[in-house]
Design brief:
- The complex is a heterodimer.
- Chain A is an all-beta fold.
- Chain A is built from no helices and eleven strands.
- In chain A, strands 2, 4, 5, 9, 10 and 11 form a six-stranded mixed beta sheet that branches. Chain A has a five-stranded antiparallel beta sheet with strand order 1-3-8-7-6, with no helix packed on it.
- Chain A starts with a strand and ends with a strand.
- The radius of gyration of chain B is 13 Å and the shape is globular.
- In chain B, a hairpin with a 2-residue loop joins strand 7 and strand 8.
- Chain B is an all-beta fold.
- Classes of the chains: A mainly beta, B mainly beta.
């Protein structure tokens, strides 16, 4: 079974500061991991995903995440926050290659606020 | 591709009325998901289909909710009768190879 824990339901940073959104997962098989972003009044959009290969994954809008198997983590980072990054971010996990495909298991989300 | 299409985008109805939400997945995607999102409960998976067959409906709140997928390009989520606590944003998503693509959602308000 898979599960996702996002630490911090709300994170606030200043414009230009580092963004760090935490995600820990539990999976009985090698996972595929995802970060989605939801802007107000919109659906979820894929930011980046890890399937296999390089553990540092780069996504859109300058975001990246690193898969750390030993820590069962997939934290999302961005070196310098922009006002337009204010949104809700969801981490998700699903069984990877060799596992049965089904739905993504989503975390509860982290709302990011960016102060001017 | 136009992405996942949902209609209507907004629906306001009165308690007791039947509500039907519609979804057109991305062509070629073999999975379709229905989610509900509220402030209180966050994002909840209601049901999902694989190749038009319902696989897991354990998230459907109660018998008032039903979903169908008569073909690969269309799905409906029906609430009958609707209640105020059903007010939420309902998302449809489709996937191929485990990457889910979300529609814009239907904002349902039940008065």
């Amino acid at each position: 079974a898979q599960s996702v824990t996002q630490l911090g339901s709300h994170v606030s940073v200043s414009e230009g500061a580092l963004v760090l959104l935490r995600c820990n997962y539990s999976s009985s098989v090698p996972p595929y991991l995802f970060w989605y972003v939801q802007y107000p009044n919109q659906g979820l959009q894929l930011l980046l995903k890890y399937t296999t290969g390089a553990t540092l994954v780069k996504g859109i809008n300058g975001f990246e995440a690193e898969f750390k198997k030993s820590e069962t983590s997939f934290h999302l980072t961005k070196p310098s926050a922009h006002m337009s990054d204010a949104a809700e971010y969801f981490c998700a996990v699903t069984p990877g290659h060799g596992g049965s495909q089904g739905n993504l298991i989503f975390g509860k989300g982290t709302k990011l606020s960016v102060k001017p | 591709d136009a992405g996942v299409i949902q209609s209507p985008r907004h629906e306001v109805t009165e308690m007791g009325q039947e509500v039907t939400l519609r979804c057109k997945p991305i062509s070629g995607h073999d999975y379709l998901f229905w989610y509900r999102q509220t402030m209180m409960r966050g994002l909840e998976l209601l049901i999902y289909f694989n190749n038009n067959v319902p696989i897991d409906d354990s998230g459907m709140p109660e018998d008032r909710f039903s979903a169908k997928m008569p073909n690969a390009s269309f799905s409906t989520l029906k609430i009958q009768p609707s209640e105020p606590r059903d007010s939420a944003v309902y998302f449809c998503a489709s996937s191929y190879r485990q990457e889910e693509f979300f529609g814009p959602g239907t904002r349902l308000t039940v008065l």
